Every structure is written in C-alpha cells, then in structure tokens.
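Posting here for the record, re: zinc ion.
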Amino acid sequence: MPNLVAHLIADVVLLAVIYRVKKPANFHWVAWQVFGSNILDIDHFLADPFYDPSRCSLVHPLHSWAVPIYVVFSFYGRFKYFFWAALLHVILDALDCLM
Ligand SMILES: [Zn+2]
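Prediction output follows.
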C-alpha cells in the first residue's frame, strides 16, 4: 500500500506541474489521464502470486517492454499526459526496486 500512496502523491505533483506549466483548458481530462495511468498495474494479474512485495514490478510487461511505446506517445496525441504519468509510474516502480 505505501507504493500506491507514493503513486498517488506523484500523480498529484505531476498534475500540479502540468497545470503550472501548460495550463490546459481541459484539466479534468488531464487529471483522468494521469490518475488513470495507474491501470498499468493491471499486469499484476499475469503474475503468480498476484502481489508479492519483494518482487520488482519491472518484470511485468506493462512496466518493461511497453516503456518505448510510452516514450514515443508522450510527445503527441490526446493521451500524452497518460503516457507522461505512465513513465513516472515506471520510474517510481524502478526506484522501489532499488530500495
Ligand atoms: Zn506499477
């Protein structure tokens, strides 16, 4: 659970930065994308056991091989903030692996 709290705090910080720098007119849409990026953890359903606190999340497909897709689509498109948040999510999970 502390990991979830860290993700939500990071999402709020990212939203604050986006609002401060970009001032998007459709901020609710941006917030949905940023908080929705936590759907990445759905790939835990592919693992057995579903949740293992000692396992590094970067072994899951949406946390590893999909990262280049996040990088490409973070530059353009209606969902770029989703991919920004997805990259932040993966970075946080990587930091969690180091600890
Ligand atoms: Zn994750």
